[in-house]
Write a structure and sequence with these properties.
Largest sheet: 6 strands, mixed
Number of helices: 1
Strand order of the largest sheet: 5-2-1-4-3-6
Order of helices and strands: EEEEEEH
Radius of gyration: 13 Å
Length: 91
């Protein structure tokens, strides 16, 4: 079953263009695939993140559901990884 819940990992602050650490769940209103780069809203501003899981069942995030934020921006992965320029994709 498709859901609009995804999991992402943020870009490492000390090793740019690498994505590791804990996964975070978000709603999304855009079509994304595993491996896509997105702009994720956080308590400390926006961060570049990589999508690591899609279509997460709601029962897996039941406890944190009221706190989930929404990802609304997909960025061009190749351009970002090549020259660190954030080019937003259009829907």
């Amino acid at each position: 079953m498709n859901t609009n819940i995804v999991s992402v990992k943020y870009e490492d602050e000390y090793a740019p263009k690498t994505f590791n650490g804990k996964s975070y769940s978000y709603y999304t209103n855009i079509d994304v695939n595993i491996g896509d780069l997105v702009i994720a809203p956080t308590a400390h501003g926006e961060k570049v993140a990589i999508v690591t899981e899609i279509n997460i069942p709601e029962h897996k995030i039941e406890m944190i559901k009221p706190y989930l934020k929404t990802i609304e921006t997909l960025i061009n992965k190749e351009i970002y990884l090549y020259n660190s320029e954030i080019l937003k994709e259009t829907a």
